[in-house]
Structures are given as structure tokens and as C-alpha cells.
């Protein structure tokens, strides 16, 4: 897997992703502590609203950015967005009111909503070979996991000597370093898509996404991930500080356990994906996710909840989380042409974060109003229901090469070259010639 780092274009991009993630990870810990400092036992509600604002920015901005990503110089766009994020991070240490957190987070995440799908769509253009791309996806997932594991540890070390506001300095450094690394790489600009109206350009990625069965299944799995993941990200600080009465540093360790589980899965996935279908791996991941969360609920009900049980639960949830999200890039690559890829990646970014938009405020509100056991039970039911829906939307017998007909095209149409009549077979991707999946509504 590490051999992919020898690629001259991918290596700086991976390093840029890594340093930006470390900066973001430090900010995540700092924001949790800032929320607790400003709101006390209502920190879960504040964080739920913070993450909700983040999702609103993602859902609203990403499709628009994806519609125009193939029209702008990709490198300049990414560098400018990194610098915007660094500028916003500079203001976070000076926040004194909760409403200020909300405003700055919206600006920060609006820039991220434009940055992330554009960055992700650049990788398959650099690495067209699927095996190389799979390694890059696993390495990218590993970057997220290393951040989840190491940045909380780094945050814990910093907190031993400094106030949590110092963590935001690491965020600024991360974004600036990412901008410099991206600037050092000559990114290929994709072939522009056909001229279309603004509305069609904005919605095209979502149309392709929702017309593809495996991507509809992926969206259902994203809802399961969001339901369980929101408990980890929103309420860890409450479980550790309020329920268990532990210190700030233990909050960082709880995030690290989640990251460690995700890293274990990421390291195992390249070999697993060579032997198993994406669907098998991802459905196994959601099963692990739900069972681990259910086990934690049982421990709570028995009155045996402890920091060790929380760490073990978060570890296994991290495994399931990574097993679902890591292969998702392969599904997006297979389901789109290069010129449509930025829009489809933006659609995944927006639609998956729409799931978080539902679950983040739900997790924060229920934790504050009803307590941990009820909150976790409701989120588990949501995840289980979403997993069952995914098995129906993404059929086990789905094939990439599908025989289909084009009765609406003339026999001499270029798309029907080397075909016998109007019927032919090829890797099926939703586009202007294939507007509906064969045999599917």
C-alpha cells in the first residue's frame, strides 16, 4: 500500500491531506472543550448545533462547487480554499460567545464543502488504475485514522502545558502547509463537461447518484454511519466529562480509540477488497458498527459502563466506520465518467452529509433531554433500519457489465459501434445515453 507514495503527484497531495487533517483534529478537540467551557453540561447540544451548521454548509455548498469544479483551475481553487480555512482558524481562539462559534464554523465548513469533493475527485484522475486507486483510498482512510489516533494524543500532550486555545495554532499550521503542498503539484484539470444550464450542472451529480443502485445503497449505509458516528463525535465529551467525571485528556483518548479501530480496518481493506466484493465488506462493516453500539447500550443498562468499555466500544465502531467509508470511493469512480466525476463526488459529499445533518442535532438534543441510553437506542434503531434498506437498494447480483438496448438511437449512432442492432453490453454508467438503470425503477 505504501508503494503508492512513490507516485510524484499523489505523494504531496497525501501529505497535504494528512497535515490538514491533523490541524482539523486538533480543532475538533479544542471545539469540544470550548463548548464545554461556554455551555457546561449543555455542551452536547452546542456541539450538535455546531455540527449541524457544518452539515448545512456541506449540503448547500458542495453541489454548487461540484457543478463548477471542472471550469476552474483546480490547483488555484484548492490553495485559495485552504488559505480561507486558515484565516477562519485564526479567529477561533478569540471566541467568547456561543454565537461566534456558529458564524465562524459556517465560514470554515463552507470552504471545506468546496475543497473536499474537488480534492477527492482529483485522485482518480491522477491514479486511473483501480488497484492504485484502491491503495490510495486505503491510505487516505489511514490518514483520517492516524489523525483520529495521533492528533488527540498530541492534543493531550499540549493540554498538559497549555490552555486548549493553543490547539487552534496547529489548525492554522495544517491548512497553510496543505496549501503549500498542493501549490507544489501540477494537478490535471478534467475534460470540461458539455455546456449545461446552472440548474442542470448543479443537480447532474445528484441525478447520476440517485439513478445508480449501488450508490443508493451507499447512501443508506451513510445514514447508518451518521447515526452511530454522531454519538461518537457529539457526545464523547459529555460521556467522558459529565457521565464518567474524567478530565479533558480522556476526551482525547476516547477519540483516539475510535481512530485506532478505523486504522485497523484501513490497513486490512486492500487485501480484503482483492478477495471480497465491496458490498460484502461494507455490509460487514455496518454489522460491526451496530453490534458494537448495541453492546455499549447493554453495558449501560447493566450499570457497568466505564471508560474501558467506552474505549472498546468506540474501537469496534471505528472498525465498522472505516469498512463502510473506505470502499465508497471505488463505487463513485465506477459509477461516473471522468467529466462527471467532480459532480458525483460532490453529490456523495452533500447527500452523505445530509444524513449527518439529521443525526447530529438529534444526538445532541436527545443526549441533553433524555440521556445516553435512550439516545443510543434510537440511533441504533436508525442505523439498523438504514442497513436493511441498503440491502434492498443495492442488489447482491448487481453487475458492472450489463446487456441493454438503445431503441431511441439510430443504428449508425457512434455509441452503437461494434454492436448488433440496438442491444449491446458494456460497463454501465448513468449518463445522457443511459438515463435509467436496466430493470430498475
TrEMBL record:
GO terms for molecular function: transmembrane transporter activity. Keywords: Cell membrane, Membrane, Transmembrane, Transmembrane helix. GO terms for cellular component: plasma membrane. Residues 9-398 form the Major facilitator superfamily (MFS) profile domain. The chain crosses the membrane at residues 12-36, 42-65, 168-187, 218-240, 252-269, 281-305, 311-332, 344-363, 375-394. Pfam families: MFS_1. The keyword Cell membrane applies. It is a multi-pass membrane protein. It is found in: Cell membrane. The keyword Membrane applies. InterPro entries: MFS (IPR011701), MFS_dom (IPR020846), MFS_trans_sf (IPR036259). This is Predicted arabinose efflux permease, MFS family. It comes from Cohaesibacter gelatinilyticus.
Amino acid at each position: 500500500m505504501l508503494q503508492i507514495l512513490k507516485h510524484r503527484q499523489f505523494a504531496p497531495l497525501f501529505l497535504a491531506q494528512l497535515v490538514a487533517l491533523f490541524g482539523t483534529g486538533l480543532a475538533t478537540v479544542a471545539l469540544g472543550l470550548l463548548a464545554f467551557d461556554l455551555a457546561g453540561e449543555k455542551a452536547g447540544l452546542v456541539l450538535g448545533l455546531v455540527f449541524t451548521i457544518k452539515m448545512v454548509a456541506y449540503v448547500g455548498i458542495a453541489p454548487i462547487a461540484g457543478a463548477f469544479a471542472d471550469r476552474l483551475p483546480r490547483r488555484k481553487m484548492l490553495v485559495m480554499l485552504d488559505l480561507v480555512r486558515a484565516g477562519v482558524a485564526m479567529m477561533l481562539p478569540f471566541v467568547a460567545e456561543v454565537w461566534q462559534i456558529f458564524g465562524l464554523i459556517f465560514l470554515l465548513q463552507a470552504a471545506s464543502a468546496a475543497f473536499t469533493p474537488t480534492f477527492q475527485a482529483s485522485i482518480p484522475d491522477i491514479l486511473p488504475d483501480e488497484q492504485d486507486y484502491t491503495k490510495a483510498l486505503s491510505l487516505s482512510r489511514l490518514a483520517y485514522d492516524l489523525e483520529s489516533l495521533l492528533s488527540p494524543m498530541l492534543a493531550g500532550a499540549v493540554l498538559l502545558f497549555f490552555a486548549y486555545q493553543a490547539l487552534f495554532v496547529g489548525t492554522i499550521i495544517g491548512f497553510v502547509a496543505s496549501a503549500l503542498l498542493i501549490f507544489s503539484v501540477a494537478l490535471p484539470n478534467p475534460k470540461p463537461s458539455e455546456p449545461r444550464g446552472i440548474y442542470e450542472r448543479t443537480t447532474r451529480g445528484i441525478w447520476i447518484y440517485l439513478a445508480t443502485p449501488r450508490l443508493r445503497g451507499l447512501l443508506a449505509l451513510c445514514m447508518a454511519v451518521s447515526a452511530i458516528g454522531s454519538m461518537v463525535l457529539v457526545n464523547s465529551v459529555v460521556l467522558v466529562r459529565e457521565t464518567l467525571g474524567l478530565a479533558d485528556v480522556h476526551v482525547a483518548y476516547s477519540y483516539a480509540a475510535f481512530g485506532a479501530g478505523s486504522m485497523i480496518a484501513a490497513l486490512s481493506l486492500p487485501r480484503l477488497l482483492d478477495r471480497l466484493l465491496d458490498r460484502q465488506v461494507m455490509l460487514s462493516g455496518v454489522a460491526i458498527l451496530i453490534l458494537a453500539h448495541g453492546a455499549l447500550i447493554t453495558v449501560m443498562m447493566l450499570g457497568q459502563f466505564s471508560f474501558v468499555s467506552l474505549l472498546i466500544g468506540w474501537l469496534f465502531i471505528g472498525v465498522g466506520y472505516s469498512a463502510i467509508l473506505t470502499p465508497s470511493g471505488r463505487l463513485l469512480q465506477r459509477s461516473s465518467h471522468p467529466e462527471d466525476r467532480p459532480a458525483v463526488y460532490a453529490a456523495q459529499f452533500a447527500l452523505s452529509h445530509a444524513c449527518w445533518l439529521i443525526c447530529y442535532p438529534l444526538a445532541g438534543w436527545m443526549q441533553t433531554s433524555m440521556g445516553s441510553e435512550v439516545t443510543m437506542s434510537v440511533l441504533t434503531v436508525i442505523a439498523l433500519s438504514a442497513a436493511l434498506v441498503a440491502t434492498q437498494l443495492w442488489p447482491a447480483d448487481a453487475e458492472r457489465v450489463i446487456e441493454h438496448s438503445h431503441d431511441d438511437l439510430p443504428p449508425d449512432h457512434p455509441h452503437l459501434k461494434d454492436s448488433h442492432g440496438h442491444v449491446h453490453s458494456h460497463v454501465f454508467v448513468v449518463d445522457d445515453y443511459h438515463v435509467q438503470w436496466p430493470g430498475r425503477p
